[in-house]
Amino acid sequence: MPNLFELQTYLEPLSLRLVQRGLLAAIVVAIICGVMGTFVVVRGLAFLGDALGHAVFPGVVIAYLLNLNLLAGGLVAGLITALAISLVGRTGQVRESTAIGIFYTVAFAFGALLLSRSRSAPRALSELLIGNVLAVRPEDLQLTLLIGGVVLLLVWAFYKELVLVSFDPQQAAALGRNVPVLNGLLFTLLALTIVASLQTVGNVLVVALLVIPAATARLLVGPLPAVMGLAALLGSLCTFAGVYISYYADIASGGAIVLCACGVFFCVLIVRSARQRLHLGVAG
Fold it and tell me: Nearest-5° angle of CA 223, CA 53, CA 260?
């Protein structure tokens, strides 16, 4: 049992290369999830995040069976699914939410079918379902850094367009913006974010890291850039705490990170609700 009052307790994990690597990858993921999660919360796209999280599964399974990089396989599957959803939605024959539900179930079913052909359920795949920062390899970290950089760069380059299409797609169309293309870009960025999150929180819990820090930040601040920044900060702090908890408790890092984020959310919600009741009581 570690002594919580000794500095060495907190420095010990940081002396290990695998913890350093995993923590860096997890913080990068927390930052891009905070940024993209703001769009998810504003547009009510939690279902899309969950769907894309499951849609990368067949790509991961195929990559494992072919002895390729698992994150690269998930990246290809996520991009294909995001583009397919966008293209089907552009036809106007099927609602976007319906297209999401179709591709989500088809992709996950295909991944489950492929997995059933394998004689054993590999640990690597189970870790990508629930996350394990201590399993992050150097090539995984490099891919995570690359994806994170691409996501943040594209959000910066198309920030005004993405905000406009998120809040008022009709106005965006009236101003000559290509709304379907911008939606496709947003879906693609979400797919990239989810793939980057596979190793740290897993594709089962990734929607929680997308939604919870952004929802918490929205309770505290108003302007969208401030929500993004605070969501990234809260996600990073919860990630740091979750990694420490998972290291000492020997539990899945994804679950620890998400539970820390949930704890912060409910604390903020309770305090905010209490302050509102107090304010109403004083005003009454």
Answer: 60
Q: How far apart are CA 130 and CA 208, in angstroms?
A: 12
Tell me how far apart the terminal alpha carbons of the chain are, to the nearest angstrom. Answer: 52
Q: Is the pLDDT of residue 9 over 90?
A: no
Radius of gyration from C-alpha coordinates of the chain: 20
Contact 200, 239 (CB under 8 A): yes
Tell me the C-alpha to C-alpha distance, in Å, between residue 160 and each of 34, 83, 156: 18, 21, 9
**Which are the contacts of 235, defined by CB distance < 8 A and separation ≥ 6?**
30, 31, 33, 34, 37, 209, 213, 261
And the tokens for 48? Answer: 């899309």
Helices and strands, number each (H, E), in the chain:
13, 0
Residue type, 109: A
* 128 vs 168, residue with greater confidence: 168
Torsion angle of C-alpha atoms 143, 146, 149, 155, degrees rounded to 10? -80
Domain 7-283 classification at class level: mainly alpha
DSSP alpha helix (H) spans, the chain: 7-11, 17-43, 46-55, 57-65, 70-90, 96-116, 123-130, 138-157, 159-167, 169-174, 179-220, 224-249, 253-283
Mean pLDDT of 66-94: 76
Sign of torsion, CA 122 147 28 184?
negative
Identify the CA nearest to 79 among candidates 69, 87, 89: 87
pTM of the prediction? 0.82
For the ranges 61-65, 91-95, 162-166, 276-280, the one whose mean pLDDT is highest: 162-166
The pLDDT assigned to 130 comes to 72
**Per-residue pLDDT at 8 exceeds 70:** no
